[in-house]
Amino acid sequence: MIIEQIYTGCLAQGAYYIESNGEVAIIDPLREVQDYIDRAAKNNAKINYIFETHFHADFVSGHVTLAEKTGARIVYGPTAKTSFDAIIAKDNQVFKVGDITITVLHTPGHTLESSCYLLKDKNGKDHALFSGDTLFLGDVGRPDLAQKGAITEEDLAGFLFDSLRNKVMPLADDVIVYPAHGAGSACGKNLSKETVGTIGNQKETNYALRADMTKAEFVKEVTDGLLPPPAYFPLNVKMNKEGYKSIDEVLENSAKPLSVKAFEIHANETDALILDVRHQSEFIKGFIPQSIFIGLGGTFAPWVGALIKDIKQPILLVTPEGEEEATIIRLSRVGFDNVLGYLKGSFASWKEAGKEIDTLESISADVLEQKIKEKMPVFDVRKPGEYQSEHIKVAESTPLDFLNNHISEFPKKGNFYVHCAGGYRSVIASSILKARGFHNVVDVAGGYAAIRNTSIERTNAVCPSTLK
Description:
Metallo-beta-lactamase, Chain A, six-stranded mixed beta sheet, 3 domains, alpha/beta
């Protein structure tokens, strides 16, 4: 038996390759599926099943393409409804994969169709639980994404309580837990950085699995402090339910090198957004006016999904040379398929052509210390929880996720200063603000990590009510 976790840090997502006696099952595959096909071919094995734990909101799964390319059957848990051929399994239905079995455990709560998959070894012993977004390490799935009609997030949280108590917690302590996500995912509140655990460890450490917890206490704790989900979530759910273009077709349509002249024509004659994905240190030194920075070096795809509201938005790319296709693939993971092309030769070709460029002013934390003494305004674009934990005493909290809600708070005259934790998110925020006419924005290099090494006065406090 082979179990491989294929973890994608950008999405904080785990897909799984399971092989036994020449037969393969894939759980929650990414949209680009060739890697799974190649793994099976290398072992002279056949992919028979594609198990989906639920309709994913944070990424576009590869189930449809993988089924088309391999003939494997797609499996969802009870109540799922799809626009493509799939097995809608019954609770406790068993699927045989070589010498092992995979049992469907319907665990509604995160979504109504959410299911975990219990793998039993060749001796029939419970070995591993592929828990999807039902159970994370240190957390559980948020219950607010599948509200429909009269069903509230409190109702879903109640369903989740029952699912965990009736289906998950009775499992033996040595059963391995393979979740769909780790730290950084917006599908939960406080996920662990670890990506593999055990049922026993989770019973000891996961707040949601406390043995003495009542359903009312569970509902309160699980629903408390939930931030609004990213805008792209329902759009990805729709694609996962209804289908999508293959990644091959997306690459064929999008991986088009554009000369400076062609790039400029596209920018002027369409409503395309210019997305610059180089490192923030390069972007600061020079970029095409009106372009937005979201660097490949961070959690790129989720930030694209959170900040670009329409997945049909036409996009023109400025990438590091050699990263063009990788950028298009990573955009497609969250449903952004409408890339018109990329700037051939990257930003250097634009600069060499003598075209207009813009820059972003950036200062050190030491200089910020002096600016604060001069009463200059400071804005913190970290998440509310980070701000609540500790922040500059005079800084206003304007989280990057909800920057649009705070636009009126930024001064139109006189410089203001923006920081995050390490410098990535503040450059994203600054690029967005500059594109909207705030040419007085100044980035703080190194973010809060650098600020901690100064004598700038800091404090901790409850998040302002406007951020809830």
